[in-house]
Write a structure and sequence with these properties.
The structure is a homodimer of 407-residue chains. The first copy, chain A, has helices at 19-34, 49-60, 66-73, 75-90, 122-129, 155-166, 200-208, 216-224, 273-282, 306-314, 340-352, 376-386, 396-402, and strands at residues 6-11, 38-43, 95-98, 105-107, 116-119, 133-137, 140-142, 148-150, 171-176, 181-182, 194-195, 197-198, 228-233, 241-243, 256-260, 265-269, 289-293, 296-300, 319-323, 326-332, 359-363, 366-372. By secondary structure, chain A is of the alpha/beta class. Chain A has two domains: 6-256 and 397-402, Carbamate kinase, CATH 3.40.1160; 261-386, VC0802-like, CATH 3.30.2130.10. In chain A, the strands form six sheets. Chain A has an eight-stranded mixed β-sheet, with helices on both faces. In chain A, strands 15-20-22-21 form a four-stranded antiparallel β-sheet, sandwiched between helices. In chain A, a hairpin with an 8-residue loop joins strand 4 (105-107) and strand 5 (116-119). In chain A, helix 1 (19-34) packs across helix 4 (75-90) and helix 7 (200-208) packs antiparallel against helix 8. At the A-B interface, helix 1, helix 2, helix 3, helix 4 and strand 3 of A face helix 1, helix 2, helix 3, helix 4 and strand 3 of B. Chains A, B: Pfam families: AA_kinase, ACT_9.
């Protein structure tokens, strides 16, 4: 057995949906606690409950104030933490639930999408010292004014990484409803392989391109504080994917393929890229890509609702047109954006499938092709084969790492 | 129009059940705010939600820890306050929701039934100064350890009175689903009359005897801090009943009649009254009456679950037997317990109905008769007639008071 350690674990909403799953999580915690480990466990709201609370808000107000929306939505995590504490106690271990404010998660005052400023884990340490499993509400923090803030959708991943960093740890495990990060979406590519390890940059690129296993913000935090993140299944004891520096496989050109079934492409005239960027940033809606083409600017804003983009850009006085029949396919791998051969092979492969990309954008570690929506799945499968992603890779580093985790 | 004032209002769960009612409350608040008044509004959880949360707790744990139960149950008030703030904002006024901890409601650490220690309303005053309607979660406080506590069922009434006192006010209005305090339950006695005013002691006695319009604790707090409480309908603008000192009608022997359809009577042998009292008090379950009869002790514990009483008393090594076919009828009026004529008239009236009380207990302002359950309603009606409660009373004092409230 491994030495006794302090772990930071995070469980998502689907892992907590319903009494049976909650109990299963509790039993996993108690087993690790019995083995002598200390546990800080970050929980999301139970599956669907945040959506329900959100619907309640919009049933009483057309435009709920963000401060009050935070006060309301944060309640979902309070519920799951208190219930989980009860379930753990029932399973025979000491447990205590802490809200984000109690756990010392300090944020700025940007309600609805607050930035983490600092974690002061005194209360967490205090409770750990009493022998309790400490359950912390994800997604929440406290503003300088003393109000509950939320970190934006999926913010619980960021909470977990921040708490690990605050406790001086260099690891954190995210238990989720998928067993690992795959070379492509297994629903689209039956031969897609789980990746034992992936670099943070690659994970960021996959997430930005539509593979929503882990919130990009959590990955950025992990990079900033040098925290390795283990993404794994909450339903099994199998190791998943380690997100870590050094997990770049030189033998592999492409780490994985991400896609979006629907990705709007906007065409803007009458404003500079800087103006557009500023207008979007003001609403917390970052542009995915901005490409200038003569007097026209092509713009993507993945993850942002279309009306929001249209409104933000129109407000600058610019004209904006939406092309909404597109999806996107992205190749992700460290350095691939700098290799002309990758781009050439990809374009040849797409051509062989009669798929013509309407927009190609590239960053150092990602190349994204906007294609017609009906062609997305075919493009993913073709590129997966072209770049040999079905083949097993050398995963020595990751296996070594995985063996150190509790299972 | 009355001068501009600071009001503390409280709305209960049935007043908040559903979007329409929530909006109606919001409109009432906005109207008073537009008239220039400052409002601190204490809210309960929306109808039924506390029961739902409680059921969730027991679905994951047979014996949930009180600290975690508080963390869970307090969520209901957070939801109603955040939603009400949104509804008020939507209706056109500034509003801010504050939790018990934010509002400065300090309690001891007795989770599940915390005692109020102090109200530090700095944040409330701050928010009032910005022109906002301040919505405060009822039922909640913060323990010295920094954890959310709850004040026990119905604790929102106590929150409202405590906040009024903390703000230096001598009035507080409780909006509820009944229009007033009546001389008897109108469902049992069709001729029952609403009381325009009632003394705090009488209200305490009515509450202790089963008339659950207002939590006894709120009444005690009102007495301790000299706060007059106006109990009124949240569905109309009619004045209800003022709870205040000086509201004792010398012309009236009896103020009202309360009853309980079911009230267990226990017979204990093998322990002293002091031991029994101590055993119950330890579990926060006060005895209603303890009557010694030779070596037997008769005991009532209204409002406490029977298994809890049986367990607490058995634990002392005493024998306890439960007689569970009883209900109770109580006459309430200042000083009636000291008047032999009242007792005599009541017993004659019951005899005329062929009702034989199995236990009679009296305090200075209440006389309680334990009778067979099937006889309770008849006893209430007969006593209501015997003591002339159908007749209109002099209510000048109360009307004067009611006219000062916003309506």
């Amino acid at each position: 057995m491994a030495a006794q350690r302090l772990f930071v674990w995070k469980f998502g909403g689907t892992s907590l949906a319903g009494t049976d799953r909650l109990r299963a999580v509790a039993e996993r915690l108690v087993a690790a606690h019995r083995a002598g480990h200390q546990l800080v466990v970050v929980l999301s709201a139970m599956g669907g409950s945040t959506d329900e609370l959100n619907a309640m808000a919009y049933s009483v107000s057309g435009r709920p104030q963000l401060r009050e929306l935070d006060a309301l939505l944060s309640v979902g995590e309070n519920i799951s933490c208190a219930l989980a504490a009860m379930a753990v106690q029932d399973a025979g271990a000491r447990a205590v639930s802490l809200t984000g404010p109690q756990a010392g998660i300090l944020t700025d005052g940007a309600h609805g999408n607050a930035r983490l400023r600092e974690v002061r884990p005194e209360r967490i340490r205090q409770e750990l010292a009493t022998g309790a499993i400490v359950l912390v509400t994800g997604y929440q923090g406290i503003s300088p004014a003393g109000d509950v803030t939320t970190l934006g959708r999926g913010g619980s991943d960021a909470s977990a990484v921040a708490i690990a960093a605050g406790l001086g740890l260099h690891e954190c495990e995210i238990f989720t409803d998928v067993p690992a990060v795959f070379t492509a979406d297994p629903r689209v590519v039956p031969g897609a392989r789980p990746l034992a390890a992936i670099s943070r940059d690659e994970m960021l690129q996959l997430a930005a391109a539509g593979a929503s296993v882990l919130q990009p913000r959590a990955v950025e935090l992990a990079a900033a504080h040098d925290v390795d993140v283990h993404v794994r299944s909450s339903f099994t004891n199998e190791p998943g994917t380690w997100l870590q520096e050094g997990a770049v496989f030189e033998s592999f050109e492409i780490t994985g393929i991400a896609h979006r079934d629907r990705e709007a492409l906007y065409t803007v005239t009458g404003a500079s890229p800087a103006t557009i960027m500023a207008a979007l940033a003001e609403r917390g809606a970052p542009a995915g890509a901005i490409v200038r083409n003569g007097s026209e600017i092509h713009l993507t804003a993945p993850g942002v609702e279309e009306p929001e983009v249209l409104e933000a850009v129109s407000a600058t006085g610019a004209q904006i047109v939406l092309l909404d029949e597109l999806g996107s396919v992205s190749l992700v791998g460290t350095g691939i954006g700098r290799r002309p051969d990758t781009m050439a092979r990809a374009l040849q492969a797409l051509e062989a499938e009669d798929i013509e990309p309407l927009l190609v954008t590239s960053t150092p570690s990602r190349v994204t092709f906007h294609v017609m929506r009906r062609a997305v799945d075919r493009a993913v499968r073709r590129l997966h084969t072209t770049f040999g992603l079905h083949q097993a890779a050398a995963v020595a580093l990751a296996l070594d790492r995985a063996a150190r985790s509790v299972s």
